[in-house]
């Protein structure tokens, strides 16, 4: 029997499993082999919004597929485009929750930053998503569907790179993220090379161990934001549960070079002492460092490090032999800080009815 929309959809399954389910179903109907081979590519490779759009199939079969294997969708609530080309999407899920993705073009590269949870429980002080709290985990389809929807709308938007840096902590939703990684990477899924897929974590040690156990070499980024534990803990409460030393130990299992993400916040993590501690850590781990200006929309109570101080901080890292890149703050004229668009949309939305879902 086909999976129903209320439980798991065919798009929540790893491609190999989806292929078996569809093939068994089609073989049960007595469809010829060539017909069966036409079904699977319509899931991810050449996606259709609904089976009825797969006009290479007979109309009766399309109608039956739509009844028995309905393809779920994410509803686009709003899209914003920045003058720098960054585009931000707010999607509504089946139960009314909303999540965000950000598409960042850079030369030939199109990097899509995707969400793995609606909201987040971890409360990092510089993050708009953290302030809204945790709503729920996303399903594999709701994660990879963020790409599927873009491709349905415009195949030219298919991202070359994917980063799990949107709403939520991916390694706290490992069962779904694990399947999502397979769909992203598999040749009969989206076929994005593992080197072009980055999982960014605050340092959930069991999840890091599970990710390191995958045979593909997905990239790991650690949201570090301070190399001195006493400076990191007030910024990232999760440091109490998984102290930095344990996170770094778990990171040693990754064969590919790791990246430290470091948002510079005035007076909190941008002194020379902070830079020197970061140099020592990055050297020990052989890590690249991405320095990010604090997005002004992400945390109104914190001040971004001024540009000259960012340059001095980066220069100090480089003099210490560290490969450090200062990332441009993208989409400054739109709500591109993680979680910001959802928060703003909720502020402008009519109040939820009593007992209803608050957006
Ligand atoms: S930075 Fe990431 S882990 Fe921290 S609160 Fe925001 S979404 Fe959660």
Structural class: alpha/beta
Instruction: Report Rg.
Output: 21 Å
CATH topology of the largest domain: TIM Barrel
The H/E string reads: HHHEEEEEHEHEHEHEHHEHEHEH
Structural domain count: 2
Which hetero compounds are present in the coordinates?
A: iron/sulfur cluster
Strand line-up in the sheet with most strands: 1-2-3-4-7-8-9-10-11-12
Q: How would you sum up this structure in a few lines?
A:
This protein is an alpha/beta fold and 359 residues long. The chain has helices at residues 15-28, 33-39, 59-68, 128-132, 140-153, 174-185, 205-212, 229-235, 244-251, 272-285, 307-319, 340-348; strands at residues 75-81, 87-92, 98-106, 109-113, 117-119, 134-137, 161-164, 197-201, 219-223, 259-264, 288-293, 324-326. Iron/sulfur cluster binds next to α4.
Structural summary, described in words:
With 359 residues, the chain is an alpha/beta fold. It has 2 domains: 10-68; 75-348, Aldolase class I (TIM Barrel), CATH 3.20.20. Helices cover 34% and strands 18% of the residues. The protein has helices at 15-28, 33-39, 59-68, 128-132, 140-153, 174-185, 205-212, 229-235, 244-251, 272-285, 307-319, 340-348, and strands spanning 75-81, 87-92, 98-106, 109-113, 117-119, 134-137, 161-164, 197-201, 219-223, 259-264, 288-293, 324-326. Strands 1-2-3-4-7-8-9-10-11-12 form a 10-stranded mixed sheet, covered by helices on one side. Strand 10, helix 10 (272-285) and strand 11 form a beta-alpha-beta unit. Helix 5 runs parallel beside helix 6 (174-185) and helix 7 runs parallel beside helix 9. The two termini are 35 Å apart. Residues 1-6 and 348-359 have low confidence and may be disordered. It binds iron/sulfur cluster (SF4). Residues 120, 122-124, 127, 129-130, 167-169, 202, 338 line the site of iron/sulfur cluster (SF4). Iron/sulfur cluster (SF4) binds at residues 120, 122-124, 127, 129-130, 167-169, 202, 338.
